[in-house]
Amino acid sequence: MSTPFPQRPTGDTQFDFSGDSTDVVEYVTSKCAWCDQSSLVLLPADRVRRWQTTGAYVQVMFPELIPDQRELLISGTHPACWDVMFAEVEDEEEPSQSG
Ligand SMILES: [Zn+2]
Fold this sequence. Notes:
The chain is an alpha+beta fold. It has 4 helices and 3 strands, in the order βββαααα.
């Protein structure tokens, strides 16, 4: 089974929409809340159009995405950056066991 997506250099986010035979568009996400970098995501053109014109939920338009990937589309925040942010919060709550 061949992929309809062109190969992209590393740094871009590529999802597998092997079921779609339509054209793809380069969707630029919002800037990540942590690293301030936006991401370039290749998505099926017709679904992006419907998503943006109907205001449908990401999980409805792109049910094959995992929650981390949906979050990237919605807020632009990278999964890895979420981990860093939560790690910082947890670090403050870590009980001191010295003594
Ligand atoms: Zn980030």
